[in-house]
Specification:
Blueprint: H1 10-15, E1 20-25, E2 28-32, E3 38-46, E4 49-57, H2 63-78, H3 83-99, H4 104-115, H5 123-141, H6 150-161, H7 165-184, H8 196-210, H9 224-233
Antiparallel strand pairs: 1-2, 2-3, 3-4
Helix pairs in contact: 4-5, 4-7, 5-6, 5-7, 6-7, 6-8
């Protein structure tokens, strides 16, 4: 039985050049096209319908590897699973996984491109780009957007929250918008770690208050006359 399922040899695979299909057994087939390209094909039937699933070119996938792939496919058939459907499902899952590897910088760029047409002031594009590049990118710009958490956002904002409060507030809002866009686009899940209400206000509010501009205290009414006289005399 084993010999019937392994009719080809590695030497034959190398020397065969005539276009056609050459069966190794168990559904595994060597396919040679009129152009001379060689590849592996797994041929099988499901509910009376024939299918062919590519297993890769011979210069990349060896005969032994192709046999293993065919064996794995036959095991799926025993479980009632169409190997081709399983392959497509895995490809989709891999594509989604790669999509979720979008970095914060990539998401920020996409967000700006998606919204710049609605911004009346052309300077907004430069302002968004410059502030995010200056403050957010060095901390987590290169990281997958799905990995950005509260700790990273605070790490980004803390150094400027007291000294550049207005700028820090804008950066926070822009980070929140980018992360919100990433969530809607399917690149991350969960709460937005840059949200203010009920979240960052608990961590940064005290620092914010210390940096607010303080007005001079008002002059008591009974001191006004003396102040005016002193000011006039000066």
């Amino acid at each position: 039985m084993a010999r019937q399922q392994q009719r080809l040899s590695a030497l034959q695979v190398t020397k065969l050049t005539k276009p056609g299909l050459y069966g190794d057994g168990g559904g595994l087939t060597l396919q040679i096209t009129p152009s001379g390209a060689k590849s592996w094909l797994f041929r099988y039937m499901v509910s009376g319908k024939s299918f062919g699933m590519g297993l890769g070119p011979t210069h990349t996938v060896s005969l032994a590897e192709a046999r293993q792939k065919a064996l794995d496919a036959r095991k799926l058939l025993i479980e009632g699973i169409n190997p081709l459907s399983a392959k497509k499902k895995n490809q989709i899952a891999a594509a989604l996984a790669n999509a979720k590897m979008m970095t914060f910088d990539q998401c920020a760029e996409s967000y700006i491109l998606a919204h710049k047409a609605s911004w009346k002031n052309a300077k907004h594009v430069d302002q968004w780009t410059n502030t995010l590049n200056t403050y957010a990118s060095p901390v987590f710009g290169h990281l997958p957007v799905a990995e950005i958490d509260t700790g990273l956002v605070v790490k980004c904002l803390s150094p400027i929250w007291e000294s550049k409060t207005e700028t820090a507030s804008r950066v926070r809002g822009r980070i929140e918008s980018v992360l919100g866009w990433a969530t809607t686009s399917g690149y991350r899940t969960g709460e937005n770690p840059a949200r203010w209400k009920g979240h960052l206000e608990n961590l940064l509010a005290t620092t914010s208050k210390t940096s607010r501009t303080k007005n001079h205290p008002s002059l008591p009414w009974h001191s006004i006359a003396a102040f005016v006289l002193a000011f006039a005399g000066a």
